[in-house]
Amino acid sequence: MMRKLYPLSSAAMTLALSACGSSSSSSSPTPAEPPPPAMIATAQALHASADAPPVIISFNGVPQPSETDFREGTRVLNLTAGDVELQLDGVLPGGNATVIGPVTVSFEANAFYRVIAVNDVANIEPIILEEPETNGPASTVRLRVLHAAPIATHDHRRISTEAKVRIIHGSPAAGNVDVYVTAVGADISAESPALADVTFKANSAWTDSSRRL
């Protein structure tokens, strides 16, 4: 069966060529540059003022979701490095009262800080400790002692240059550990452990820090 061929009109040919040309000349938009990664510091706040009420701890105006009582702490928080606003509000029956701040502290990127509220409630103040970025050798634990009792009795301390320390191994996943007691930042590779091969749930006696454990 013979087929008849019909010539295209000039208008149809122009339309076809125009469509092809528009397709070949189009280009994808240039993607936007991604924002630089945020510089992050991590921090944890601890309540160490014995006669202060529970507190609400705020960083940069954002309060933590629950109260923090004496000897408790917040979860570890990721904060934008730089100037950070800190505030503690005591939880009182008649309404909350600010006991620290707002005060501005400076946190460096990739650093971990502990913010500790110390002293009696009338003179409560923050102490800021920067913690080491790396862990010690395997099978060891880090210990840091802070004297935060403004009025120490003989039940807790013997003289003003001593503190009592007790070590408890409470990590089931860590295995046996060695415990070192040294100055902050000391290299423990040349030190002997104060407690060696400590098993899970083992604990030392209360011991004056002026003597070895």
Structure notes:
With 213 residues, the chain is mainly beta. The chain has one helix and 13 strands. The strands form four sheets. Strands 4-1-7-8 form a four-stranded mixed beta sheet, with no helix packed on it. Mean pLDDT is 77; it is low at 154-160.
Mean pLDDT, rounded to whole units? 77
| Strand order across the largest sheet | 4-1-7-8
End-to-end separation in angstroms reads: 108 Å
Structural class: mainly beta
Distinct helical segment count: 1
Helical percentage? under 10%
Order of helices and strands: HEEEEEEEEEEEEE
- The shape, in one word, is flat
Unreliable stretches covering 5 or more consecutive residues: 154-160
Summed up:
With 213 residues, the chain is mainly beta. The chain has one helix at residues 10-25; strands spanning 40-47, 55-59, 62-63, 77-80, 82-90, 97-107, 112-118, 125-131, 140-141, 164-165, 177-179, 195-198, 207-208.
Considering the chains and any ligands shown, give keywords for the structure.
4-stranded mixed beta sheet; 1 helix; mainly beta; about 10% helix; about 210 residues
Q: Could you outline the blueprint of secondary structure elements for this entry?
A:
Elements: H1 10-25, E1 40-47, E2 55-59, E3 62-63, E4 77-80, E5 82-90, E6 97-107, E7 112-118, E8 125-131, E9 140-141, E10 164-165, E11 177-179, E12 195-198, E13 207-208
Parallel strand pairs: 1-7, 9-11
Antiparallel strand pairs: 1-4, 2-3, 2-5, 5-6, 7-8, 10-13, 11-12
